[in-house]
Amino acid sequence: AQSVTQLDSHVSVSEGTPVLLRCNYSSSYSPSLFWYVQHPNKGLQLLLKYTSAATLVKGINGFEAEFKKSETSFHLTKPSAHMSDAAEYFCVVSGLIGNEKLTFGTGTRLTIIP
Amino acid sequence: DTEVTQTPKHLVMGMTNKKSLKCEQHMGHRAMYWYKQKAKKPPELMFVYSYEKLSINESVPSRFSPECPNSSLLNLHLHALQPEDSALYLCASSFRGGPNNEQFFGPGTRLTVL
Asked: With 70 as the cut, is the pLDDT of residue A65 above it?
């Protein structure tokens, strides 16, 4: 079984400052991990994914995440926040091979202060 | 074409109505999904179709009936819904399902049941 914990339900940062959204996972196998973003009244867009290749994963719009097995973490970062980054972010872990189910975290709402 | 489309964008229906939601993708993906998302919550998986066969049904009430007429099209037939079924219904697709295959989401259908 797998699970995901997003440690902050709401994060506020000023425009131009760094963003850190925290995610811890639990899995009995080597997981695939994803970060998705959802803007208001929109579908989910994939930001980046980790699939056991490089531990530092670069995504779209300047986001990146680092897989740390020893800490069971997959935190999302961005050096400089932009107003358009305001959205809901979901950390997601996949199931075993042959299992199409994704397990979603509860989400982190990112607010950008002008 | 790298997107998942959903129609209609909004739907209002009474509890005795019959309606259908439609989802389409032309990316050659062979796994397709229906999710339900309530406000301020992560998406909840309802159904998975893999190679046009229903592979996962998450104990969804029978008033929701999925259909996959071909590899590009996914429908969700609705009948005798309850007000608590009001939500954003998201469709997604992936190349073949499985842990390394990211899911691509459509923009959703906002359903209101009166």
From this structure: yes
List the beta bridge partners of residue B46. none
**DSSP one-letter string for A84-108:** GG-EEEEEEEE-STT---EEE---E
Residue in B88, B103, B107 nearest the CB of A102: B103
pLDDT tens-digit series, residues B41-69: 999 999 999 999 998 888 999 999 999 99
- Angle at the Cα of A44 (from A74 to B64), degrees rounded to 5? 120
The 3-state DSSP class for residue A15 equals coil
Cβ-based contacts of B106 with chain A (< 8 Å): 43
Which residues, at least 6 apart from B52, have a Cβ–Cβ distance to it below 8 Å? B30, B68, B70, B71
Touching check for B31 and chain A: CB below 8 Å? yes
